[in-house]
Design a protein that fits this description.
About 20% of the residues are buried. The longest helix is centred in the first third of the chain and has 19 residues, at about 5-20. This protein has one domain (about 5-125): Endonuclease, Chain A. With about 130 residues, it is an alpha+beta fold. The chain is built from 6 helices and 4 strands; from the N terminus they run αβααββααβα.
């Protein structure tokens, strides 16, 4: 399995768990371009990520974007300097628009049934754990 297929599978599994298994009352969009989610940033340093970047999983509550989930291999996201810079810009763009970012390692799909994983998703989507 190549990396793209693996990422797509992980995104699908996480999305399915949030909607069907956890029964969280949200809507989800996959691979949504950042330029469709946020207004053009004032900072020119964020223009490239806004123009060409996307979210892996966008979470909406009451038709409002509240959180994005970004799965990724830890080795890639922590060692590749260009990826680190892209991630940082994406996080700044989200922060500027009051959207939470949950960056998870791909291995999380092996632990989706754990209550701690459900609490983590709820914290980022609802803002608190109930």
């Amino acid at each position: 399995m190549n990396n793209i297929q693996g990422d797509e599978l992980i995104i699908e599994k996480i999305s399915d768990y949030i909607i069907n298994k956890y029964n969280l009352k949200v809507s989800i969009e996959i691979k949504k371009p950042l330029r469709e989610l946020f207004p053009k940033p004032e900072s020119k340093g964020l223009h490239s990520i806004w123009s060409y970047g996307h979210t892996d999983i966008s979470i909406y509550r009451h038709n409002k974007l509240v959180c994005i989930i970004e799965p990724g291999g830890w080795h890639y996201h922590l060692k590749d300097k260009k990826q680190i810079l892209r991630d940082k810009k994406k996080y700044i763009l989200c922060k500027n628009n009051n959207v939470k970012v949950l960056n998870v390692v791909n291995d999380i799909v092996d632990n989706l049934d754990l209550s701690i994983t459900k609490r983590l998703f709820k914290k980022y989507i609802y803002g608190s754990v109930k």
